[in-house]
Structure formats: structure tokens, C-alpha cells
Design goal:
This protein is mostly helical and about 450 residues long. Helices cover about 70% and strands about 0% of the residues. The chain is built from 17 helices and no strands.
Length: about 450
């Protein structure tokens, strides 16, 4: 596939990496996992807030629950933005050619990320700080949150489409914008797996956040207890993990084969088993009585964290496999270009040295004077502003002295030509060279 005719094989800029490649890869995986964790909390928190607030129209306790989750969204989104700098810089450094090609091909949608993020953030702040003011206008308040959720759901789709596109250089010739790239293999399964992760991580976060001893449940809620909210959290986590496993299986079977290896399959399978382990203990926590609801919480958290390490590792392994052959072709193309460039430079230096070694004749020096002072008005064999040079050579072919005299102080002989300016500033040597050149023209 990589050798098909329409696969672009550009030349690269062979700049040295600022750090060893293995260190940049490690930084990319680690920083991405931190970033995606808070992205999950931001997106998942927004979805759960909207869901709980809708339920809160009939049950006031859910409205309070939604308010409590909404307070965390703005904090998590700020951390997510900060944590996103390192993986963005790392992937730009490691895969410059591929990342920027994908950016250019998705064009308008990629540029729209910045204004969309800004609008979504402002909406979450507006939603958070108008809770009491819009207490009697819930439809408007829900609309604000609904718009924020819609944008939060769309932005990751742009990122995911972009990162997916960079893996398929053989598709760059056929992609025509974001919507075209959106239809490439594996985009939607990966997107729905991501949404499952957002819900799962948010559910686990709710269990931890409301389980803190310093968190004053009794002062905040009237009917909900700590146990009630933890059950809600485990239920949300169970739903999210189930979706993640379902779409993770679909992802595995829809991944284009170009990046698949036994190692990738093994790591993905191990990651799936860890999710199944976490799902099982979420279910067990839901069925336990109040006093034992948290007995499996650490197992769930550890298995999800280890899953994330497996997940980040498998992504990088697949990316490496998918791009390896194309990177080899680019390296070969770059090496060929550098060789040709070096050869051209050496030939240019040789020609300059050869020219410098050959002394210029009087006529050669006169041509330089002509190009500096005369070429703007005179062509060799056609009228420009003044007569052609071949006429001058014909008139003064045996009279170099009068030619020089005319050049220094010309008169006006022809009505159809403008008066020629004089050139008294020319030295005698320059006049000798110029007249020699003119008289050689035939």
C-alpha cells in the first residue's frame, strides 16, 4: 500500500532531535496519559452533569449532585489544557511531517479547535456561576450546559480524526477536508471507546470525590447519603467500562493491519483483561452492602491505571508500526535530495573557481560596464529606448575614439529617439572596455 503511486513521499528536514528518541517517546506516552485522564474527567463530568441536572428537574437531590460535579469541570479542564502542552510538543517533534500534514488536510476543523475550546470553557463557567440566578429558568441553564457538552464532544472527534489521519500517508492524496478524514477506518470505534473511558473515569472519580471524610455530605444533601452517591458513581463506572470493553473489541478488529503486530495484540488484550477485572469489581461493589461498598475500590483504581499504561503503550507501538515503512521511504528520499543538493553545490563551487581562474578579456569587462550603465536602454539587436547595439558597432566599427566621445557627451541625431544622457563619470579604463565590447557585437 505504501508503494502505490498516489502515496506522497515528501522530503524531510533532517534536524537533530532535542532529546534522545526513546526519551521523547516516553515523555509523549506519559504526558499523554496525564492529559487524557483530565480530558476524560472534563468530558465525562460534563456529560454526567447534564444527565443529573435533567434528572434533577424531578428530583432535587440530583440537581444538587449535578451542581457538585459541575464545580469540578472547570478545574479539570484547566489541568487538562496545561497537561496537553507536553504531548503536543512531543508528537510535533517526533512526527512533524505527519502531524502537520494531517493538520493541513483537516484544515478548517483543526483551526476551529481554539475558538471552540474558548466557547466551551466560557459556557462551563457561565453554567457554574449562574446556578442560583437561573434557578427558576432551568431550560436556559440546561441549554448552556447542553451547548458546552456538544462542543466538548466535538473537539475530541477533531483531535482523534487528525491523529488517525497522520497514520495513513497513503490516504493523503484522497482526503478532502475533515469530513473526508472522518470516514477513514477506525475513527468512530475509537471515538466511542474514548466516550466510554470518559464515563468510566468520571464514575470512579465520583466515588473517590464523595468518599472523602472531609467532604460534608450531610450538609449538602437532604436525602442522598454517601452510600447513595457512591452507588451512583459505581453504576456510572460500570456503564463506562462496559462501553469501553465493547468498543475496544470493535477497535481491535477494525484496526488497519499495517500497524498490527503480535506485540500490539498482546498489549491490547492485556489492557482488555484489566478493564474486565475493573468491571467485575465495580459490579461486586454495587452488590455489596453499605459497609463493604469500598472494599474493592483500590483494585478498581489500580487496574484502570495499569490499563492506561498498557493503552498508551499500545497506541505508540501501533503508531510506530504504521509509520515505519513510510518513514524509511522519506529517509531514502531525503538522503537522495541531500546527495543531489551536495552535488549541485560542489558543481557550483567548481564553476565559480573555474571562472575565477580564467582571466576576463577587455570585452568581458566591457560587458559588465554595459550591463551596469547601458542595458536599461539598449538591446543587442532590437530597439528599446535607444538604438540596438549592432547599429553602434556598425557606425563606429573603426572609430573607437569617437564612440567613446559620444558615450561621454552624446548629442541628438535622430528625431525618433530621445536625447541620450551623458556618462562623464566613466573612467578611461571603463570607456576602453565598454567600446571594446560594443565593437565586438555582430
Amino acid at each position: 500500500m505504501l508503494l502505490q503511486i498516489n502515496t506522497p513521499i515528501p522530503k524531510d528536514l533532517p534536524l537533530d532531535l532535542p532529546l534522545p528518541e526513546w526519551l521523547l517517546v516516553g515523555l509523549l506516552v506519559f504526558s499523554f496519559l496525564l492529559h487524557i485522564l483530565f480530558i476524560n474527567l472534563m468530558v465525562g463530568g460534563s456529560i454526567i452533569t447534564l444527565w443529573a441536572q435533567i434528572k434533577g428537574l424531578k428530583n432535587k437531590e440530583y440537581d444538587i449532585f449535578a451542581h457538585e460535579i459541575a464545580k469540578t469541570i472547570t478545574v479539570n479542564k484547566s489541568i487538562a489544557v496545561v497537561m496537553g502542552v507536553a504531548p503536543l510538543l512531543s508528537i510535533n517533534t517526533l512526527y512533524t511531517l505527519y502531524f502537520y500534514s494531517a493538520n493541513a488536510l483537516t484544515g478548517f476543523a483543526w483551526i476551529m479547535i481554539i475558538p471552540l475550546v474558548t466557547i466551551a470553557f466560557l459556557l462551563t463557567y457561565l453554567h457554574k456561576y449562574t446556578w442560583q440566578n437561573l434557578e427558576k429558568n432551568k431550560s436556559l441553564h440546561l441549554t448552556i450546559m447542553g451547548l458546552a457538552v456538544a462542543i466538548f464532544l466535538f473537539i475530541p472527534l477533531i483531535f482523534l480524526t487528525n491523529v488517525n489521519l497522520m497514520l495513513f500517508p497513503e490516504k493523503w492524496g484522497t482526503v478532502q477536508g475533515f469530513l473526508s478524514a472522518l470516514l477513514l477506518p477506525n475513527v468512530f470505534p475509537r471515538y466511542f471507546e474514548f466516550l466510554g473511558a470518559c464515563i468510566a473515569i468520571t464514575g470512579i472519580f465520583i466515588v473517590w470525590y464523595n468518599g472523602r471524610k472531609a467532604y460534608p455530605i450531610e450538609e449538602i444533601y437532604t436525602n442522598f447519603t454517601r452510600y447513595t452517591i457512591k452507588k451512583i458513581g459505581y453504576s456510572i463506572a460500570t456503564l463506562g467500562l462496559s462501553l469501553q470493553i465493547l468498543f475496544g473489541i470493535i477497535v481491535l478488529f477494525t484496526l488497519p493491519s499495517k500497524g498490527i503486530s503480535y506485540a500490539v495484540i498482546s498489549v491490547m488484550a492485556g489492557a482488555g483483561l484489566l478493564l474486565a477485572y475493573a468491571l467485575w469489581y465495580c459490579y461486586k461493589s454495587l452488590t455489596n452492602d453499605e459497609h463493604f461498598i469500598d472494599i474493592h475500590f483500590k483494585k478498581i483504581v489500580i487496574s484502570v491505571l495499569v490499563f492506561m499504561i498498557f493503552y498508551g503503550g499500545s497506541r505508540q507501538m501501533y503508531r510506530h508500526n504504521a509509520l515505519e515503512k513510510h518513514q524509511e521511504l522519506v529517509a531514502a528520499h531525503t538522503a537522495e535530495f541531500q546527495q543531489l543538493s551536495k552535488q549541485a553545490r560542489e558543481e557550483s563551487i567548481f564553476l565559480k573557481q573555474k571562472a575565477a581562474a580564467t582571466p576576463k578579456t577587455e570585452a568581458d569587462l566591457g560587458k559588465d560596464v554595459f550591463n551596469q550603465y547601458c542595458a536599461a536602454c539598449h538591446k543587442t539587436d532590437a530597439k528599446l529606448v535607444g538604438p540596438p547595439v549592432i547599429e553602434m558597432a556598425s557606425i563606429y566599427k573603426s572609430d573607437k575614439a569617437n564612440l567613446q566621445k559620444w558615450i561621454k557627451a552624446p548629442g541628438k541625431k535622430r528625431a525618433d529617439y530621445p536625447q541620450m544622457p551623458g556618462f562623464p563619470q566613466l573612467s578611461q579604463a571603463e570607456l576602453d572596455q565598454l567600446s571594446e565590447y560594443i565593437l565586438t557585437i555582430k
